[in-house]
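DATA SHEET
Item: assembly model
Revision: 1
Owner: S.N.
Input lines:
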Amino acid sequence: MKRRTLLASAAFAASLGTAAFAQDPTKACFVYVGPIGDGGWTYQHHQGALALKEEYGDKVEIAWQESVPEGSDAERVLTQMALSGCNIIFTTSFGYMDATNAVAAKFPDIKFEHSTGYKREHPNVSTYNARFYEGRAVVGHIAGKMTKTNKIGYIGSFPIPEVIMGINSYFHHAKMANPDVELVVTWAYTWFDPAKEADAARAMLDQGVDVITAHTDSTAPLAEIGKEDGNAWGFGQASDMAAFMTNDDGTPGPRVASIIDEWSPYYIKRVGALMDGTYEQIDSWAGMPEGEVVIGEMNDAIPDDVKAEAQELIDAISSGEYHPFTGPINRQDGTPWLAEGETAEDGTLLGMDFYIEGIKGEIPQ
Amino acid sequence: MIKLEKRPQPSRLWTVLAPLLAVLLTMVVGGALFWFLGANPFEAIRTIFWDPLFDPQFAPFSRPQLLVKAGPLILIAIGLSIGFRAGIWNIGAEGQYIMGAICGAGAGLALYPSDSVLVFPLMILCGALGGWAWAMIPAILKTRFGTNEILVSLMLVYVAENILASMSSGLLRNPEGMGFPGSRNFKQWEAAHNAELIPNTGMHWGVVFAFICVIGVYVMLTRHIQGFNIRLTGDAPKAARFAGVSPARVVFLCLGLAGALAGLAGLFEVSGPAGQITIDFNSGYGFTAIIVAFLGRLNPIGILLAGLLMALTYIGGELAQLMLGVPGASIQLFQGMLLFFLLGVDVFTNFRIRLTKPELA
Amino acid sequence: MDLSSINPILLVASIMVSATPILLAAIGEMVVEKAGVLNLGVEGMMITGAVVAFAVAVNTGSPILGFAFGAFGAAALSLTFGVLTQILLSNQVATGLGLTLVGLGLSSLIGKPYEGVKAPSLPRLDIPVLSDLPVLGRMIFSHDIMVYLSLLLVVAVWAFLKYTRGGLILRAVGESHDSAHALGYKVVRVRLLAILFGGACAGMGGAYLSLVRVPQWTEGVTAGAGWIALAIVVFASWRAGRVAVGAYLFGGITVLQLNLQAAGAAVPVALLSASPYVITILVLVFISARGMHGAPASLGRPFHASS
């Protein structure tokens, strides 16, 4: 019944030609690229949406649509959302970038927020992303300390700046923790294919890699690592993946820590701003200090001193006193990138297409 | 005993009645599904079937979108239906669609940023050629070696998908795209953009082509000797041979036409609604079109209606998710049910049910 | 690049595990196609098997029961395909595609409560004596029971088709349903049974993914494995032994390219991933060029006893 009245009021608003008329509640809408049940990327965005609803209660209405393909369907779905009376629409995948901007042009009164993109062609389009490389720094440190074979692994999805940034941060901090460490990268060329992710983990494990982080969405690599019976370790990715923290027999599970995408602070902040009239177009790239990148609870497989070091690193990044890309860092070919004490510029990071010194192999194409 | 008895001719009554009955059954069973999921079943059914067409809030936008969504489905299905009538089972339209898009978009991107009026026609030509060439592989193998075209065309879908993955992150990647896979966006390049011809009607060149094909194929099948040959090859291959119809020519014609149309659909989609080549821009149109072809009983008018009905369930399904919060999976299941009912009920068109006494030995 | 870091023993062991789901699904589909039915809904049946198996295994704590119910659930789903195509005479291609839609939708609805839950694990079966053998022990004789069961199934299917009367009837139905009908065989019944068997096998393949290979339930967990199974049947030119070869080849190429990447080799991934399909086409051409029957002659054709 409630939905029906909402429908009616939204229709009323639309018939007046403006959605701003729909007073309370503010309607926040979300477009997801995968199913909510993916347990990773989309799941975390949806958790953020639910937290938003939780925070504001009746003042906010949320709606969403899952598994929206990035091709021709995105623009239609976005338009329908705009017509349905959404006041703010969050589009949560890079591939929605052009569609978001196109639809935003047609609905100047509705706010659009595009995740992980860089185009803000209209005043009502903002972009937001999280500094996941900060989390990679912490798990990189843990990996460097935990490895016995001195070989650590990274399952990449696609060779895009976001992932390359993560690889560099992970390796840089592993190397600082353990100068002998060597990095193995495999590209799965998919964001989500559990069997293939498991195969990738298996391939690395078979070659003596004993700590693996994944930049793909499923828990399959963790399950595969678990088959090594405590001789190899991994990290939760996107969500906490707490099911792998402790084994059934009570021993520490393969997931020693995790990098959690925590979108709720951002969603709460933006929708709050919209409601109290302080909303402005922004390009947000927040991280640990703002609570958007969170390291999940470390389990007891990590020695206490390493835990303490990791916590120090977390604190240093969270307080803003340490930037994970602080020089001296050279590029892979040995040419200097960052001088002593210099920190990386955001622009360089967002377009990152090179490995840092010490990583073997080439970035495909 | 219940027995099915083939009708001498398809029943005209059931031709009309069967789809209606199927939609009705889907509404009942689908309604139960939504009720089970905690949504109001009447509201859900109304949102899916009625709102995209008549709701004052959505319909002005959704109605044209039906054409946009149905356009490529109809275009591909029309091409496929000709082959299916002749007993040539091309199930690889998805691959032909992808290759058409790659070739057409590639030809266009090679000329970037030309603003010549010839860019778009060239892309159309290359799109059709790309799809045609991809369909020629099973055609040649079938006529030369007798290789099964169902399987070859299906295998070629996987090959095309891999080519697409490699192209979108390699050769066709947008040099200004920050390293992300995906080509330039055609919407930002006027000469190559397959834009709406009349604003807010959904009519772009792909939809226009689809309509032309519906009419063209209808005429060909009913009035033209080639159409007769195709139907004859499907219904009575031996008779066709006696009549001097070359089986090889029919194979080349059917596969070539289906491939070219699928390629066109791919090109129109990628240069219009999708806007760019990405790793998964294809989203299964080539397979959905097979379903559309059969739902339309391989008849051009039927395909037109079936394509629109499919599009309606997509768009209505999206609205149901948005307005009622039902999970996306329930829409998928709902579509599957609709298909099953349509396919199942269709038995009455060609068969009648006879109650017979068990035969005595 | 350091190829010496690839351990061939572990590579083979890893391929065996990786290929098992597609092997199970493919051997079932092969029987279906041998009976003259083309069921393109393997992906839908696999994922249904995956979710049902996972749900049952979590609730009962028994992976074995999970496998049984996964097979049963997928077989039940395949029955809708059977009824539609065999009794209501709908088109097999369209119905199979519809089956995939239904399976994907149904599975994610069933699976909602099981997201993020861990599955009870299937114990690794170290075959006594054999698993202690050097090289072969680790490579072949220390997997879980389903790996062996899948190979056993291949042998059983091969023997059934080659040596039994039932197998003969099944093949006859697939080659020429009209003749088989004239000889008094129940074409529809044989085909329904084949479809059920195919469903059960696909279900077990899916169950292997959600209970052993991955092991978890997430939407879309099969990620296209069912489509690969379809390709394997063709690659195998409808022979049981070659289905096993095909599954190990298709699975092996993925595992191999990942291993090569991990060893630091620059791998043309797209080219390698496409290669099994190109090989399949070449195999098809090769068989047909030699004038042999490739596919069962009645494959995909509807049957209606008009007498």
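QC remark: Chain C touches chain B through 49 residues (CB under 8 Å).
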